[in-house]
Amino acid sequence: MLPQVPALPDIKGGQMAIGEVALRLAGLLASTRSVISIIRNEAQIPDLKAVSPRISPHVLSLEDAPATDFTRIFTGADVVVFSAGAGGKGGPERTLAIDYHGAVKVFDAIEAVEGAKPRLLLVSAIDIRDHSKPFPAHYNEGDKEISRKYADALKNYVEAKYLADKNLIGRTAFKWTILRPGTLLDTPGTGRVSIGRTHLSPGIPRDDVAQTLAHLVDRPDAAGLAIDAIGGESPIGEALDAFIKKGETDWVG
């Protein structure tokens, strides 16, 4: 039986859409795995099928559906990938509904799976932390300036993501890993990254975020780690190997 990987899409332009990272990831995984893509409406199905006819779409609203509906989909799955996010658009209420309450709903749904529970890969963002505390020790002056602008421009998004990450880190009923990519780019992927207590730039192509997630699907030994990733020079697999071997999470609270 092929491993099952439900993937929840991110949100583009303030509306639920097949997320660019999630869509790329589904295409990467579909040749060797049973992939379920959770989407909001049937109009998105052709986009999924264009990537791979092997992807199984499932229409379900992250905002409106109860956690029990997600539990049913997650039962029997090996890995759940959550890359949903309002992107700071749609107002603070929608941002909180997707980036915090939606994430917590998925956490609860995984906990409610009877028997073997799937691992969770949560896509967060770099510099998601308590911004009332001092800067992390490895930040340089450029990082600090980026952090200030980021927290000011996307205040609601940063706070919602922080609350979701903090909630997940306190959970022990299932295994989880957090990927914290830098600014997402539409440029072609390079297959190379910088991972682990990085700086906040340069950005990282969405292709490379999807590739990193594809690697993490097969890395249960990354459980309990938060992983910062930006554009860099190290091959993705080698960078993850070194980071996981070191075993030092990038979550700073």
From TrEMBL:
| Pfam families per record | NAD_binding_10 (PF13460)
NAD(P)-binding domain residues are 18-220
Cite the InterPro entries for this sequence.
NAD(P)-bd_dom, NAD(P)-bd_dom_sf
- Return the protein name: NAD(P)-binding domain-containing protein
